[in-house]
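Objective 1.3, modelling of assemblies. Example input:
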Amino acid sequence: MAINMAEPAKALKSDYDLLMAKAKDIIIIGSIQSLASWDMETKMPPKGIKQRSQQLAILSQIEHQMTTSSEIGTLLSKIEKHVAYETLNELQKRNVYLMKKQYDEQTKLPEKLVVETARQQALTIDTWKKAKTAKDFSMFKPELEKLLALRKEAAKILMKVKETRTPYDALIDIFEPRMTSEMIAKIFGELREGLVKIIKKCATAPEKPQASILMRKIPPSVQQKISNELAQFIDYDVKSPKAGGRIDETEHPFTNGYYDDVRITTHYYENNPASSLFSVLHEGGHAIYEQNLNPEWLYQPVGMGASLGFHESQSRFVENIIGRSREFWTYFYPKLNLLASNAFSDVALDDFVRAINQVKPSKIRVEADEVTYCLHIIIRFEIERELIANKIAVADLPEIWNRKYHDYLGVEIQNDSEGVMQDIHWASGYYGYFPTYALGNIYSGQLLTKLRKDIPIWQDQIRTGDFLQVKKWLTENVHQHGNLYDPADLIKRITGESLNVQPYLKYLDEKCAWIYGY
Amino acid sequence: MAINMAEPAKALKSDYDLLMAKAKDIIIIGSIQSLASWDMETKMPPKGIKQRSQQLAILSQIEHQMTTSSEIGTLLSKIEKHVAYETLNELQKRNVYLMKKQYDEQTKLPEKLVVETARQQALTIDTWKKAKTAKDFSMFKPELEKLLALRKEAAKILMKVKETRTPYDALIDIFEPRMTSEMIAKIFGELREGLVKIIKKCATAPEKPQASILMRKIPPSVQQKISNELAQFIDYDVKSPKAGGRIDETEHPFTNGYYDDVRITTHYYENNPASSLFSVLHEGGHAIYEQNLNPEWLYQPVGMGASLGFHESQSRFVENIIGRSREFWTYFYPKLNLLASNAFSDVALDDFVRAINQVKPSKIRVEADEVTYCLHIIIRFEIERELIANKIAVADLPEIWNRKYHDYLGVEIQNDSEGVMQDIHWASGYYGYFPTYALGNIYSGQLLTKLRKDIPIWQDQIRTGDFLQVKKWLTENVHQHGNLYDPADLIKRITGESLNVQPYLKYLDEKCAWIYGY
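Predicted structure (tokens):
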């Protein structure tokens, strides 16, 4: 006997719409937090910090109340148990799933723990800044220990909610849904092996790029114009009356915003113009991802990036696969010289391209080249995995860090400011975050393989300054899917294969073979 | 028989503290709205407008929910009827009064109306910008009509709550508490009469300032430096690591913020440096008012300016009474010439001071001289009073506007961008706002009379670049009182007399007598 589902389906849709109205409010509050953070980093007068922390605190509180409201709990149980549940389409089910996940996680964390973590986080970041300036890990240690203990407590709770194998896996899941430390360990092993081979080939190669030629003095005002030109190339509009972006200057570059208002920042070093060149392309890659999300999904949980790893795949794709390619510079090099009063007119195009692709093990992650970069990540992953598993203590960090940098990269760390204290992530309580940087690179390699099949002439397009075809491909293959799939499913859907490090290694090896002539 | 009030007073204080905690949350939400508005006017990418209106709408909704919460209603009735009510001090009673006033007004406004108004406001401002650029009132008209209808609806509701004689009076009360259109009409009559006399004296005077000498080309980057110098003179910190202010550029200058984060904007016209000079002093006057509020009253209802009129008294005091005085320019003229590569080195100090005080009827309010300025306000007052009373329609605005400008100021409006669309106020839904500009001037005249008595040598101080004594006087007499008194009470408390237009007219007449040699 067939049951008429029209009436129940209508009732369900009405509950679903109510849930989506709640989701919209939560997302808009998030976008306001985002604006307040952007302003704090870019424009806020220094004295405004106390008022700003009050503003951020109240916004967090409102968001938490909204996310954990009993109305949402009731709607979720009604929808999930609903007789007509199967009448929801894939998109609607995903929205419900994402709301449920958020609700479960947020309601299980005791408010006391959340508040205490936020407080300790601010304190630890503040101490980190001071300790980093003072090059004194012992200053940082006690605060980091407190914050780590709080994150471990949260991880234990989240492990049960998310049903992960370890507490660390529960933290990874925050940034890269359903990714596990076991999968990461396996793929990072393969990645490391491949990278070490390439690094050795470069080290013994006959040709050596001259990276020092990049150190030319270009005034920040000119670098600004170059940034605008780069933004125009990737179709990230920061100037027209319809612009949905803007570029400002901060100590550390970042991307902020959503859909029609996505802003990036960069840092202009007068004697190192390459720094802002590539940070603008990197953040621009993040920005166009956010801007190209399906406009129909605005203010819905699916209308977000798929994961931090996928976000990073887009930024690294634009920064490296496009931005460090010979094709791009064939197009852009004359423009650069035009804008920068021929600052590089004595440098041949190929020498410039080689210089921006130099492979050289170094101490600082954010300054690392494409090939050695992931080794910095692997070190951090290995350390934080053991840290959360209580296998190592905060006190051991400097020693372990320095040893790994010696073993993996062959560099000797002189002090903890250029060592274990170089990044803000652990001071912010972000454990499980670092692996996503390397995952992004791996995804980008897989995407490149697929792009080559779909648009065999993509490099010719870039050479003539046409990024729009590649952008369209990225939009259709990545951006438009938003958060409809977990990253593991998304990469398979796009490329037909699971997470695979070989395409990325192949890309690097081919590039280095040309750069180093091996 | 004496009643022991200790226990009831303690219970009352506990309710009062709960009420103040609610007040704090509401004020912080207000400060977030303020930030979102500032960003919208200064930094937001154009495409962000829709997202911004959603953000502003949800903040309005949250603010409305907080303001009208039943907890506040309950606390207010408990406190007002409390046996120990008289144990509250004047400050506490004022806080309760202000919360009650807000609660009564807001509970009567339907949430739908509030949210819809916020949304329409953002859209109307956006349309106003486009229509103004296009010099096309017909573009602006439909959005303005929608917004006006919403404001009229609110005015009718507020009239009952506030027990005002007309809906328009209820709107005036938002900006200038307890001021009425009848009082304004009366005092504006006296003001107009006095101004017309002065204008006539100037027009027939033997000496004429040469305002054209002000039209010197000064690059915006230099004007920026001059702005910073002016900010420093009035002790408005925009540069140090402890700065609580900043200066940005917008089409129309404004002040935004509260206590430790107060931002001003200006507009740099390359060939008219005087424009930004005086807008920086004007907005700076607003800014120091906000920054000098009693720090103990932060996040309390009393920790606000007394009214828009009082706010304007401070901006006009700094812009005109200080900023257009011979004393100030004795100090600042060499600095100006130093910063601006001697742009005015061929102009004698007195000729410069005469030029910046030229009296000449003109079309644009924000560019009007001190004497004709209030006629612009009187025109707007007369028009909006009739607009809210349904005596004229939006469609009639251009014609009525242009006729009044002809009649009152003798100028012919060529298009609506220099006419009825010149100001943002009506596009923002601010009706009842314009009169406060003239009230501010009137208050500033009364304050000047008192300052002369209290600090007879104030002009000598300004002449040596010392504004700090006057600032201290303003702080003690105006800023520190915050919103403790209604404006009518405050002006009486400071000067010993009620609202009186004569001191302002006397100040203008004396100044013009010197400028024009009559």
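Residues 6-42 of chain A form the longest helix (37 residues).
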